[in-house]
Amino acid sequence: MAYTSSSLHLHKHLLLPKTNPSSSYSRPPPPSFVAAAAKINGVNGHSSKKSPNGKAQINGDGKKGVNGSGRKKAAAQHINGNDRIHLSVSTGGAGGQDGFGLRVAFQGAPGAYSEFAAKTALPGCDTVPCRAFADALAAVDGGAVDRAILPVESTMEGTALRNYDLLLRHDLVVVQEINLFVHYCLLAMPGVRAAEVRRVISHPMALAHCGRALARLGVDREPVEDTAGAVEMLRSNRMLDTAAIASPRAADLYGLDVLAHGLQDESWNVTRFLLLSKPPSPVTLPMDADAKTSMVVAHRGGSMMVVLKVLSAFSSRNINLTKLEVINNNDGGGGGGAAASAGHPVMILDTSARGAPTLRAFPHVLYVDCEGASHDPRVLDAIKEIERFAVFVRVLGCYAADSNVYDLQ
Ligand SMILES: O=C(O)C(=O)C[C@]1(C(=O)O)C=C[C@@H](O)C=C1
């Protein structure tokens, strides 16, 4: 196989006992957007807070956003339960720490999970729907918006390699992480019964996450751009033999019936999103903050030895890793792996050199997230050590560590 990827999922929340969120799905969702942080036992002990955010919003294309129904009053919590960090974060430029005045691009129609993640990160922001993730990243890169939100991994699928591919091609920095609990519902036009459904449409990831339930239903599956886009399509074409997989919020937003809750094969289904900005990072963290640093390391191959050296660079300084993904493309010849870039080297924008940033091709790459800020001398030393044997290291961002998992209940 030309292109392989293996990951060590070191996310703390994956190591913790599973809650059973599906138990609460039998009741309909509350009418308002209330993102309640499900605190993860024993991780950081920080409590979550709620802050009012009742702003109705219309996105640039005239569509209503998450809070756009006019009757919705959003009560989203602060993203960081840790006051010390939260209070020290400044979003820079326009907008306060809750994101008021900031425009955040997301992929999908209003009501997509990505939009909820953006509103969880920055409750006061204005969300801007984009057709594709590439459009969302181009929008922030080009200055049309202030931030973009990107799903980068999920407990069910691992790393979203296509989205990493996109991220690495841009000169963007990670400014925040958000773990969102993703529970899927089967939505249909009002009055349609489950027995009448012949086809289910949704984002490919959602269809994959609900494979067993869909097999039980014996329906055709059709991928579309995003979950909320599926709902919108269903609604505008008044499809009576088709259902969509999307969030209960999307059902509420578009006025559809929820035929079934908690459709995902695994009850514990969390997607990790990154909030991206143009550099320099508008977020400043104090030296002693609980922070994370994300980086990409390109090397000459012989991966397992390199992996050991990378692990040693961190472990010898007592630095914990929260992610390590190994990407190898051995022949560069367009082979048939499962990843978006199967058979192709990873393209990374090199912003380190003087002059214009250049796109460079690397067949052997590691995606690494470590605990600690990029200005922490221990992290700096570890990176320096890695630079001695790696071909190239790019720090993708330094941000407040947030191991909470946010739920839309
Ligand atoms: O389609 C959406 O609603 C999205 O926000 C995208 C997306 C993804 O790409 O992973 C986000 C979270 C869910 O896992 C399903 C789909």
Could you name the CATH topology of the largest domain?
D-Maltodextrin-Binding Protein, domain 2
Principal-axis shape equals elongated
Q: What is the CATH superfamily label of the largest domain?
A: Periplasmic binding protein-like II
Q: Give the domain tally.
A: 3
Helical coverage, percent range: 10-25%
**CA gyration radius, whole angstroms:** 21 Å
Largest sheet: 10 strands, mixed
- Proportion of beta-strand residues: 25-35%
Count every helix, treating DSSP H or I runs of 4 or more residues as helices. 11
Distinct small molecules bound, one entry per kind:
prephenic acid
Query: How many extended strands?
Result: 22
Structural class: alpha/beta
Distance between the termini: 42 Å
Written description of the protein model:
The chain is elongated. It has helices at 12-15, 83-88, 113-121, 133-141, 161-168, 204-209, 211-217, 227-236, 248-254, 303-315, 377-389; strands at 3-9, 34-38, 50-53, 74-77, 103-107, 126-130, 147-154, 158-159, 173-181, 185-188, 199-202, 220-223, 242-246, 257-260, 270-277, 291-298, 321-329, 346-350, 358-362, 364-371, 392-400, 405-407. Helix 10 (303-315) packs antiparallel against helix 11 (377-389). The strands form four sheets. Strands 2, 3, 4, 5, 6, 7, 8, 9, 15 and 22 form a ten-stranded mixed sheet that branches. The protein has a five-stranded antiparallel sheet with strand order 1-17-20-16-21, with helices on one face. Strands 12-11-13-10-14 form a five-stranded mixed sheet. The longest helix has 13 residues, at 303-315. Helix 3 links the parallel strand 5 (103-107) and strand 6 (126-130). The chain is α/β, with parallel strands linked by helices and 409 residues long. It binds prephenic acid. Prephenic acid binds at residues 108, 112-114, 151, 154, 182, 203, 205-206, 226-228, 271. The site of prephenic acid has 14 residues, from helix 3, strand 7, helix 6 and helix 8.
